Amino acid sequence: MSGADNPSPLATKVDAGAARKAGPVTETPLLAIRDLVVAFQADGHETVAVRNVSFTILEGQTVALVGESGSGKSTTAAAINRLLAENGRIMGGTVLFEGRDLARASQRELMKVRGAGIGLVPQDPSSNLNPVIRIGDQIAEVLIAHGRAKGKAAKLRAIELLEMVGITDAARRYRQYPHEFSGGMRQRVLIAIGLACRPKLLIADEPTSALDVTVQRTVLDQLDELTRQMGTAVLLITHNLALAAERADQILVMNRGEIVEAGNTREILENPQHEYTRKLLEAAPSLASASTAHQVVANNTARGSSAQAGGVGVAVPADGPSATGSLPPAGVRGDDLVVVKDLTKIFNSRGVGGKVFTAVDGVSFSIPRGQTVSLVGESGSGKSTTANLILGLETVSAGSIAFDGTQLTTLRRRELFRLRRRMQPVFQNPYASLDPRFTIEDTITEPFRVHNLGTPASRRESVRTLLDQVALPSTVAKRLPHELSGGQRQRVAIARALALSPELVVLDEAVSALDVLVQAQILELLAGLQRDLGLSYLFISHDLAVVRMISHSLHVMQAGRIVESGTPGEIFRNPQVEYTKELLAAIPGAGLSAVSAMGSAE
Amino acid sequence: MLESTFDTGAHPTTAQLAGAASTAPGDGPSPGRPATGFARMIRRPRFWLPAGVIALLVMISLFPGPFASLFGNGDPRACDLANSGGEPSVGHPFGFDVQGCDLYANVIYGATPSITIGIVVTVSAMLLAIILGLLSGYYGGWFDTILGRITDVFYGFPFMVAAIVILTAIGVRNIATVCITLAVFSWPTMTRIMRSSVMSAKNMEYVRAAKALGASDWRILVIHILPNAIAPLVVLSSLSIGGIIAGEAGLTYLGVGLQPPSISWGLQLNTAQSYFNSNPHLLLYPSLFLSVTVLAFVLLGDAVRDALDPKLRK
Fold first, then answer.
1. Does A428 touch chain B (CB under 8 A)?
2. Hey, is the C-beta of A424 within 8 angstroms of any chain B C-beta?
3. What predicted TM-score, i.e. pTM, was given to this entire model?
4. Chain A contact for B26, CB < 8 A?
5. Does A278 lie at the interface with B, CB-CB under 8 angstroms?
6. Is residue A226 helix, strand or coil?
7. I want to staple A556 with a disulfide (CB 3.0 to 4.6 A). Which of A510, A564, B24, B154 is the partner?
8. Which residues of chain A are in CATH 3.40.50.300 domains?
9. Could you tell me the maximum CA-CA distance found in chain A, to the nearest angstrom?
């Protein structure tokens, strides 16, 4: 995009810093990192987090550093302006920025470079603004710190910056506090801070990971626009290969502290050399047209084989899954496990004159046996509340939920208790969904204890079976959650959900917090379990790309209502509602699918 | 050796913690994380130093006799007015009080009420806080509202004035009534702490998962929420033991706490105030013991806080 353009006409506005290097010498890189090694000291021994990393960024170029959590990408970024955690240390290598080695620069020199030469847009908009200081003052602070402006001038410049990042009514907004801003607006403010001194390089560390997809897109568009105008080079840190592909000129793929592949975005997409890059490409839901196709096949076989699964009878519920071998296409009535009708949930906020908030507003859909139905929407769309209503974790305000013909809304405690065995949830956060003080065995056997089933011996036996089903070794039974990785924990959560042989599993953002490769594995596991056990899934997600891979039918929710329903094929090919179109367009890499289709076809 | 006595004696908060948690199903020692936390904590001097001092003090308060007679004059009530205010001498290392009693023996015997009150008050306030905090934090609603206003009322009283009023009204001044008075003003803060940590624990996904399983409220409260929410309360309690001991001494010093012929540090200080120009050692020794005790409990509380707080553990 921005490439190595000569500074555009707007660059005349660019002051001192850029003017100094009038003739853009694109050959000398703005940033050159060579053999960077970073290690962390923990419990007396050193762990190398980044080893022998070398790359360059030219002026005005956007370079994406892609990798999973723990790959060392953020550490690399932090090493550039030496903002490593206290126990981190640069062990070797050079970080040449405009010819100066930042790895050896004094603190005084670094202070001049930070903010002025190298801007930073941090990840989390909710914690990176000081809640007790006005937004405007936080922007002006950077200008004042670097002597770019003072007093009134700093204020005017800050307002100008707010306008630049697309915040309307900037003069009034200047005087507001962070809590009066939405997440997307806060991220814009952070961008304004990052760009305030017109740095030559902007490090954007997962700048939009905490935002909804549509917001993410507008924020990134804004960032692109501004950095192009200013001729700022961008180092974009992200776990999302699709997003990187869409925004960057160059991509660096990191794995376990090393850069395993580097190159032109197009080259990497079309012709990935390293095995890890190929794996990432395959796993990226929005790029993976190939694996989507694969998934469709898997789903088809699922339909075929679920009847056989009834015969296997491992953990199949008594009434069996879809009794018929020839499964009806989604939407045909008669074999629906769950029928939701005009479901409404109204929250009354407490206190005098409390406001009434309708979280779920007349929602109707059904979940056929053995199939996956997805609810998709942005945060606040009411999808998780719908899940909680079905699980009986919230009381229904109006409407009805029928589970296998039984009305849930009128059930008494005891009856509801019995029904709970037949539907189980898996939640989003693999770090919060297991009791930190329970061993894995305790966690998985809790359902038996609650429902008073089995003997200690038979429970232990089922733990082995269940762990096996979720592809975990039986040795984890005695471990505690913090000893497991995120993906393993999520498998444990699935095992717990399966313990009572439910018919319906409610997956509330169950893969959203996982790295792409792990995400792909868990999705595969879920598809396999559905095939073998004839499970029905209610899949809640904000990620259309993931939903597409796993669902038989999906419903798009906005502001508590279902605005569009259909099969993933229909909705992706021919979205009817404006909101759905927006959501689809906002999937990172959506515009690249043609390219990647070519790539993966090879 | 000191360590083991410490475990049985001065560790009621954690012992009780374990008791509460052991209702949990766990076959075998369940919580691995706190165990490692405690294991690491115990090796540090900033833990075992105050813990050792407290262990010694607990031993003294349980068996004052042998300790008092270390120097041959172990009876605090064997007094000879001829020795009134006497200087230290052989067999009487701290000298004599105004009644001519051995000051060392008196200071040793004075440990019993102080430490008993510190521990009894803390444990009972903590139990109350656990129950009320769990109920109001988990269920909320009218119970929470009413409880909140009641604790507000307690915050409104100046502690000393209110304690004086209560003790004067009761009329009987012994360890039990002083305990009750101090406990009455200790539970509100503890309850608030417990309530807020219950409120954050109840929103965890594992609690939602347990609810979706159909687990009873009792089960969720005792097995999931209590063990995960109790750490801040344990910390606060271990820090407040010292404050309570000082509070007892304060009340007694003011003349509304324990009464003679009881023996306590507060009483000794009360007597010493009139004589400390001529006999400063009367003030010195009881206050030295009191300070060391309070300090030891506060330092222990600090160490416990560090062991339980995952943010500080790193």
1. yes
2. yes
3. 0.73
4. yes
5. no
6. helix
7. A564
8. 9-274, 285-314+335-347+357-422+502-585
9. 80
What whole-number distance in Å separates Cα of residue A164 and Cα of residue A167?
7
One-letter amino acid for residue A64 of the chain: A
Helix axes B141-156, B103-139, angle to 10 degrees: 150
**Any chain A CB within 8 A of the CB of B227?**
yes
Give dist(CA A568, CA A545) in Å, integer: 10
Closest by CA to A212, choosing from A564, A490, A592, A579, is A579
**Residues of B whose CB is below 8 A from A446:** 25, 210, 213, 215
The Cβ-side half-sphere exposure at A391, using a 13 Å CA radius, reads 29
For residue B203, the chain A residue with the least C-alpha distance is: A432
* Residue B38 token pair: 């405690």
* Residue type present at position A543: D
Contacts of B208 in chain A (CB under 8 A): 393, 425, 427
Q: CATH for A9-274?
A: 3.40.50.300
The verdict on residue B2 lying in a domain is no
pLDDT string in tens for chain B (314-residue length): 333 333 333 333 333 333 333 333 333 333 334 445 566 667 778 788 888 888 998 888 888 888 877 777 777 777 777 777 777 777 777 877 777 788 888 888 888 888 888 889 999 999 999 999 999 999 988 999 999 999 998 888 888 888 888 888 888 888 888 888 888 888 999 999 999 999 988 888 889 889 888 888 999 999 889 888 888 898 888 878 878 888 888 888 888 888 877 888 888 888 887 887 888 888 888 888 888 988 888 888 888 777 765 544 43
Question: Can you tell me the distance from the alpha carbon of B235 to that of B301, in angstroms, rounded to the nearest whole number?
Answer: 6
In CATH, what number is assigned to the domain containing residue B189? Answer: 1.10.3720.10
**Residue B22 within any structural domain of the chain:** no
Q: How many contacts, defined by CB atoms under 8 Å, are there between A and B? A: 74
**Beta carbons within 8 Å of A520's beta carbon, 6+ residues apart:** A282, A283, A285, A291
The domain of B293 spans: 43-313
Closest in B212, B215, B216 to A425, CB measured:
B212
**Would you state the structure tokens that stand for residue A441, as one six-digit string?**
């065995």
CATH number among 3.40.50.2300, 3.40.50.300, 3.40.190.10, 3.30.565.10, domain A285-314+335-347+357-422+502-585: 3.40.50.300
- The nearest alpha carbon in chain A to B205 belongs to A433
Q: Coil, helix or strand for A41?
A: strand
Q: Does residue B19 fall inside a structural domain?
A: no
Prediction ipTM score: 0.71
Cα–Cα distance measured from residue A343 to residue A364, given in angstroms and rounded to the nearest whole number = 6
A425 to chain B, any CB pair closer than 8 A? The answer is: yes
How many domains does the structure of chain B reveal? 1
Residue B168 within a domain: yes
Q: Do B214 and A429 touch (CB under 8 A)?
A: no
Interface touch B208/A437, C-beta < 8 Å:
no
Q: Is B36 on the interface with A (CB under 8 A)?
A: no
Neighbours of A407 (CB within 10 A): 11
Compare all CA atoms of chain A with the CA of B206 and give the residue at the minimum distance.
A433
Closest CA–CA distance from residue A128 to any residue of chain B (Å): 19
Tell how strand A31-42 and strand A88-97 pair up: antiparallel
Closest CA to A379 of A580, A539, A543: A543
Chain B residue closest to A43 (CA)? B314
Closest CA to B115 of B264, B308, B282: B264
DSSP output for A453-499: -S-HHHHHHHHHHHHHHTT--GGGGGS-GGGS-HHHHHHHHHHHHHT
Instruction: Find out whether A424 and A500 touch, Cβ atoms under 8 Å.
Output: yes
Q: Phi-psi region for residue A48, left (φ > 0), alpha (ψ -120 to 50) or beta?
A: beta
Between CA A146 and CA A150 the distance in angstroms is 10
Q: Which of A391, A435, A437 sits opposite B212 (nearest CB)?
A: A391
